[in-house]
Amino acid sequence: MPQSRQRRKEARPQELLQAALELFVEKGFAATRSEEVAHRAGVSKGTLYLYYPSKEELFKAVVRHNLTPILGVGGDLLDSFEGPTTELLVKLVERWWDDVGHTPAAGIFKLILAEGHNFPDLVEFQVNEVVLPSRALVRRAVQRGIARGEFRDVDIEAVVHALIAPLQYVVLDRLTLGMCALDLGPDGSRTFLRTHMDLLMNGLRAATGKAKTTKKAAPRKRTTRAAPKKET
Questions:
Q1: What is the pLDDT of residues 120-162, one digit of tens each?
Q2: Which residue of 13, 24, 175, 205 is 20 to 30 Å from 57, comparing CA positions?
Q3: Which CATH superfamily is domain 67-204 in?
Q4: What is the C-alpha separation between 10 and 124, in angstroms, rounded?
């Protein structure tokens, strides 16, 4: 097989996923036809089915390709980060915005919100593949802050929602109001997220602002027993 054709074959799954993402975001899941995806990727419908036997499987592959990797990146950062937890959470949010929030992949969230009631299996997949792992990642970070004495003893689940909800808001703002030039804009979205994180992190900080330290136990004093009196 010529080298150019071999490279083309190896790139085909990526091209199909890119075409599918574009069409899903532009038209929605229900309105996108498999032959449209194949046409945009420059292949036949039969070739598409060789890689992805149904539109549902194609959607799942799009999610795994575009959204799942950021969870691995976040997990690695959480495991290796040695600085304050406030900085860790800010870095996690900034990385999400760079890799997902302002990219076409963010349209997947809007699609699920708009069409999820008609495709419950896809919602269940999104929850298991993205939503629950995302919450678990943020939960671990908040627990880290509490354990280190950096954060107050707060309702962890409430904090998880308070951190994630604005991420969903900026996506919907960009993909809906943006069509009318009423959205926050690229710089505005980033500024909004930074402001939100600043407010949230200051609200979470423990009163002392100091990490817990392990106190060493004071050395026990040695006592000497009086010698017993001799009987006379």
A1: 999 999 999 999 999 999 999 999 999 999 999 999 999 999 9
A2: 175
A3: Tetracycline Repressor, domain 2 (1.10.357.10)
A4: 30
